[in-house]
Amino acid sequence: MEPFIKTFRANDIRRRRSTEKSISRIPLRLIVDGLGEAKGELIRFLAPRTVDALTRKLPMEGRAALWKAEVYFETPLQMGEEKPKATVEKGTIAYWPMGKAFCIFYEDTRPYSPVNVIGKVAENLSIFSQVKSGAKIRVEKT
């Protein structure tokens, strides 16, 4: 095969990959009434069954509850533990099986009970430290 054709095919494959939607990373918009929005992503390999089930429920919204450095809200999803973690890093998005809740952690912390880590907040994490109990939060795919 000629070098030009090899290069053309390789560039074509790269271009196609960059324009296709990824099934392993799902970009999110996290909207908090009165405070603004953050951007994040669900990362499938962290907890594939949980991410797949949550993705099918999007968009979803709920009223914020607070615990330590965590903002969470109840979801219509009921899942068990999947690769549960007893500690999480700042910016972690998780599903809390015990509370059937979607969680955002704005500091390194220990959740009330183990969570399924499902993603990361990529931009504007600081808004979650300002959330008040009862604030409306909406999560949607971008």
Summarize the structure in short.
This protein has one domain (22-141): Cyclophilin, CATH 2.40.100.
For this structure, the quaternary state is single chain
- Class of secondary structure makeup: alpha+beta
The CATH architecture: Beta Barrel
Helix content: 10-25%
The succession of helices and strands, N to C, reads HEEHEEEEEEEE
Structural write-up:
- The chain has 142 residues and is of the alpha+beta class.
- The protein has a single domain, classed as Cyclophilin (Beta Barrel).
- It contains two helices and ten strands, in the order αββαββββββββ.
- Strands 1, 2, 3, 4, 5, 6, 7, 8, 9 and 10 form a ten-stranded antiparallel beta sheet that branches.
- A hairpin with a 2-residue loop joins strand 4 and strand 5.
- The longest helix is centred in the N-terminal third of the chain and has 17 residues.
- The radius of gyration is 18 Å and the shape is globular.
- The relative contact order is 0.25.
